[in-house]
Design a protein that fits this description.
heterodimer; A: 435 residues; alpha+beta; 434 Repressor (Amino-terminal Domain); 3 domains; six-stranded mixed sheet; flat; B: alpha/beta; Rossmann fold; 5 strands; DNA binding (chain A)
């Protein structure tokens, strides 16, 4: 085994080759002959003192990196990697040599292990959440218990032969009570699976983490309204987020900051006071793009916009990248939304703003007004098809319009929608037996 | 057939239905709906068969069963466990705790009757 300090030459060679410097050039700049540098690089001559400092300077690295090679943390990580998969029979006694000779590969191996560990932890968290979510478990237990009670009572009543009228009445009453309870429990479960409550705080995926942060912040960032640096907002809102979620938040904050600069709150607020949340009117009066108007409306606090609006943004694949639900228009926490939403229809008619009333199933006929628009991302596409994203703003139904059209009937998503004969259905509903 | 069955379950309408079908078959049925003092009730009632729900207020059915199996007076008591979960690990937990039979909700009346008949001492 080569001792770690005998690999200084290998590290010099590694760095030199990586930087594309010829051996002769490095030797000349360090004031030694090429043949002597060759001996050093093959670990046949020890190196230290001023010569090491000179070579390190030419290579623009810390001298310690050449003499000490890979850090203790990297070595430890490689050892752990080897112990994770003992059947691979990695040469543990040569770990220093490996890290010294191939620092890039060693670091890659270490990074891969860290990534695998992080992914495994995520899978565990998600599995645990699916298995042990206390609210889900309690709701399902209650539903199954109620179904059992109904089934038992119903089968007693369905059996041939006479049953004492008192018992008969009692079982009828039990079935009635249990069916009401079942309806209540299933409604509660559906609400829980929707995105309009505060249970999104236990997060797993980066998008969920971002959703939870934005919900907690009310989708409003005072620092950016004042023109403070985005970093300041990121520090406040990004605490405890995973790196991936932090990246999403950073991108979201940047877009917010650009919007806030283009449409400062002191200019935008009087417009909303005058025109409400009518996107087309606000766009005309401010000269701003309608999608920017939608995002600014979604960012307004209730003291400026007393009737909050909801906003969904999806990419060209239909995945929701932003969601701000309304009580009368919840949005799915996981997976895709109802394909009947104008959000998706807008992707078929880019640059045309769709404006229409909607009512979501199970909302007792309380409708919203929706405006949806698909616009290209990243400016003009040259000799290629643009990629679109779509915005859909939902706002309370206008009160001052006569002859409103009949609201279109849409769902939340297929799983929790019982709309019959829907051409958009992609999977059966859990609310109906026939789907 | 006139054995004694004790039903420990917190869902009153399940209790009522099970009581009805067992009574109709000639069983003497007693019921209880709390987990905390369930083991004590079992000892005092000394049933021939115990029907025990897993998720009870106060204490889980697994805990109650483990205590019963540690007591000479109830170590051989036939116990039918009821649960809303039917995963293999739940079955394993019930078996480890000492359940004689395991039944997942929603079960049928006929299944309960058949299980009680099979568990009852001859």
């Amino acid at each position: 085994m080569l001792a770690r300090d005998t690999l200084t030459g290998s590290r010099i060679r590694e760095r030199r080759v990586a930087q594309g410097i010829k051996q002769a050039d490095l030797a000349r700049e360090a004031g030694i002959s090429a043949s002597y540098l060759n001996l050093i690089e093959h670990n046949r001559r020890r190196i230290g003192g001023k010569l090491l400092l000179d070579i390190a300077e030419v290579l623009s690295v810390e001298p310690a990196l050449l003499t000490e090679g890979a850090g203790a943390a990297l070595i430890a990580s490689l050892r752990e990697t080897a112990s994770d998969i003992p059947q691979a029979n990695a040469e543990l006694d040569r770990v220093d040599e490996f890290a010294g000779r191939f620092p890039g590969w060693a670091q890659l191996l270490s990074d891969c292990r860290q990534r695998i560990t992080a992914l495994e932890r995520n899978v565990e968290t998600l599995t645990d959440r699916m298995t042990h979510d206390p609210h889900l478990a309690t709701s399902l237990h209650e539903m199954l218990s109620t179904v059992t009670a109904i089934r038992s009572a119903a089968s007693i009543l369905a059996e041939p032969g006479e049953i004492d009228p008192d018992w008969q009445a009692r079982f009828h009453r039990n079935i009635y009570e249990d069916s009401a309870r079942l309806a209540e429990t299933s409604r509660g479960l559906v609400t829980y699976l929707e995105a309009d409550d505060e249970t999104a705080t236990e997060t797993g995926a980066p998008q969920e983490e971002l959703d939870a942060v934005l919900e907690a912040a009310g989708h409003h960032v005072p620092e950016l309204e004042r023109g403070a640096p985005e970093q300041q907002a990121l520090e406040r809102l990004g605490k405890g987020l995973s790196a991936a979620a932090r990246g999403l938040l950073q991108a979201w904050l940047h877009r917010y900051a650009v919007d806030a600069m283009a449409l400062p709150i002191e200019h935008f607020a009087p417009l909303t006071e005058r025109f409400g949340s009518d996107v087309a009117v606000l766009a005309r009066s401010s000269g701003a793009e309608p999608t920017r108007i939608m995002r600014r409306l979604a960012a307004m606090p209730t003291d400026i916009l007393p009737d909050p609006v909801g906003l969904a943004i999806c990419d060209a694949s239909g995945v929701l990248s932003y969601r701000k639900p309304l009580p009368d228009f919840p949005m799915p926490r996981f997976g895709a939304a109802c394909p009947l939403w104008p959000l998706y229809r807008a992707l078929n008619r880019p640059m045309v703003m769709l404006s229409l009333p909607l009512v979501q199933q199970g909302r007792a006929g309380v409708g919203v007004w929706a405006e949806a628009l698909a616009t290209p991302i990243g400016g003009i596409a040259v000799n290629s098809d643009p990629i679109f994203e779509a915005h859909m703003l939902v706002r309370p139904m206008p009160l001052d319009q006569d002859n409103l059209p009949i609201p279109e009937d849409v769902g939340l998503n297929c799983r929790v929608c019982s709309k019959p004969d829907c051409h958009g259905r992609r999977e059966p509903s859990i609310l109906t037996s026939s789907g | 057939m006139a054995g004694h069955v004790l039903v420990i379950e917190d869902e009153p309408n399940i209790i009522e239905a099970i009581s009805f079908i067992l009574s109709r078959e000639g069983w003497h049925v007693a019921t209880h709906s709390n987990g905390e003092d369930a083991a004590e009730i079992v000892r005092s009632r000394a049933p021939d068969v115990l029907i025990l729900d897993v998720m009870l207020p106060g204490r889980s059915g697994y805990d109650i069963l483990r205590e019963l199996r540690g007591d000479a007076a109830t170590e051989n008591l036939p116990v039918l466990m009821l649960t809303a979960r039917g995963q293999s690990k739940d079955r394993e937990m019930a078996e480890r705790a000492g359940a004689s039979r395991f039944m997942t909700k929603p079960f049928s009346n006929a299944e309960v009757l058949e299980a009680v008949r099979a568990l009852a001492p001859a």
